[in-house]
């Protein structure tokens, strides 16, 4: 990725939302109304699958799902060059 912290150092501590799209599908309204903390929504995605990583709705990078010590994480596989 072009740029460096030296070039944007004054913005280094600004927080922003990152969106990692794991899956997309249909779910019944009845099921949505039953959701609560701890509920699980199954996904067809599994370790090794590729996904998009977006910031502000734009794809910043691509990654893959990886298992990490009992949790699921995302490994960055490619960073999109700014245009």
Explain this structure.
It is a single chain. With 83 residues, the chain is mainly beta. The chain has a single domain, classed as Surface presentation of antigens (SPOA) (Roll), CATH 2.30.330.10. It contains two helices and four strands. It has a four-stranded antiparallel beta sheet with strand order 1-2-3-4, with no helix packed on it. The radius of gyration is 16 Å and the shape is extended. The model has no long low-confidence stretch (mean pLDDT 78).
Task: Furnish the topology, listing elements before pairings.
Blueprint: H1 5-8, E1 18-20, H2 29-33, E2 50-55, E3 58-68, E4 71-79
Antiparallel strand pairs: 1-2, 2-3, 3-4
How many structural domains in the coordinates? 1
In CATH, what is the homologous superfamily? SpoA-like
What's the pLDDT, averaged over the residues? 78
Task: Return the CATH topology.
Answer: Surface presentation of antigens (SPOA)
Q: What is the number of strand segments? A: 4
Sequence of secondary-structure elements: HEHEEE
Overall outline: extended
| Largest beta-sheet details | 4 strands, antiparallel
The CATH class is identified as Mainly Beta
Tell me briefly what this model is.
The protein has 83 residues and is mainly β.
